Amino acid sequence: MKFTISQKELADTLAVVSYAVPNKPHHPILNNILLVADKHEQEILVTAFDLSLGIRVQCKSRIELEGKIALPAKLFTQVISSLPKQDIILEIVDNAAIITHSCGKCRIQTVSPQEFPSLPEIEGKNIILPAIKLLQALEGTLFAASHDENKQVLAGVHFQFTNSSWEAAATDGHRLAVVSGTIETDEQLTEHAQIEADSNTVEVTIPQPTLIELQKILGSVGDNSECTINIDNGIAVFTLPNIQITTRLLEGDYPKYSSLIPQQFQHQFIVDRKLFDNALKRVGIVADQKNKIVKIICDYQHQQATLSTESSDIGGAVESLNIKPQDDYQQQLVMGFNIKYMEQALKFLPTNEVLININQTTTPVVITPVDGILNQLILVMPVQLINNNSTAIEEDASDDNEEVIVTENISSVTEVNEGINVAAEAVEIEEDIKDKNDVIKTDSSPQKTTAETRTNSRTSANSTPKPRGRKKKVAAA
């Protein structure tokens, strides 16, 4: 094998495929990348595969001799990235790769390509999405996926595809992110075929690590590029210009999250996203570091929202910003939120303004972008505030003395039981256990006291008084 290629193009290619090189491989061959030179197409195929994620990149080069070889991924990448930015020649001689550049040569031992695993090939339905929309879908959902290995099906993004629409969703049990859009249909389909195609929904859950790497690659392709998705036999293949990403799918039934999303809202207001985000960051600095709770008072009459936090160990803060109410509600609305979840929700909404949709202070709050290119929503569960202990600085004395009770799991307001734990139920169970323990301790204390009294009385009746020091020695013996 012998070919000539630009140093920059080869270095960029290796940087992309390196995403699929495992840190701790199950087999030594997975530490390598596979190079295949195709003289007819005048291109080389560079592949890395860790048995779960595979990336293949095509790059143009001048092929003199065809061939196939495997090279140590980390070593080969370091060597190529350090070379002068000029054309280089790679030639295989006696099972070694000879890399010739403008300043000299370098020799790297190769590995037999026969041991390198092949990427799975599938034949499924082609789903075509604009790369920019798929990128925005990943940006709007990946943050909400679970990082808990015990919740395997939640450690990814769930996709639903029909012939005319698609939807992506992710949840970790505390928040839910959903992004949806349309698919351009084939105009040549008959009406009957169109109805039949729309009725066939394809549902898959793609692992979070795969989508993180796909997100990086989508950010480097052009805005006008398209991504073709093929799904079959537990495998998904994403095809971009000159790049192919192959991944295994997560097994298990994803929760029916659609029942968690309210269809109607009693209160709605629009707020500037950046101003809201900056206010949350400032009050979060002096918030209680354990719970990170912010109290928000929405004054519809004065079109103002007041954010406040207080910590007995650090201090407190109050911020105010303008809102645009979308209803005729004239009273104050008081709610509590986890600052981290609210900040992330605002961070991954792409518009300047967001719409806050509320029903009650203890029901899910839905945040949507104003005039976004996709249908997007983020559901956040508020925390419950009850009058007991002061946890927030207030401008109105009548709203003082409030305690935060964290019940922010999105499933706590529904009867959905597909694997998402209910935080409110966990709190109640924990309190019941504590109460039972207290009862047990209370019941056992008199028995222990009675037993001790009987023992002491028998000892005093059957023995003569002894010095305390000697008694301690006997007890110790």
Automatic annotation (TrEMBL):
Family annotation (InterPro entries): DNA_clamp_sf (IPR046938), DNA_polIII_beta (IPR001001), DNA_polIII_beta_C (IPR022635), DNA_polIII_beta_cen (IPR022637), DNA_polIII_beta_N (IPR022634)
Polar residues: bias regions: 442-452
Primary location recorded for the protein, binned into one broad class: cytoplasm
Assigned EC number: 2.7.7.7
Gene coding for it: dnaN
Biased composition regions of type Low complexity, renumbered to the chain: 453-464
Region (Disordered): 433-477
Localization: Cytoplasm
Biased composition range(s): Basic residues: 467-477
UniProt keyword terms in alphabetical order: Cytoplasm, DNA replication, DNA-binding, DNA-directed DNA polymerase, Nucleotidyltransferase, Transferase
Listed name of the protein: DNA polymerase III subunit beta
UniProt domain DNA polymerase III beta sliding clamp C-terminal: residue ranges: 259-378
Gene Ontology MF terms in the entry: DNA-directed DNA polymerase activity
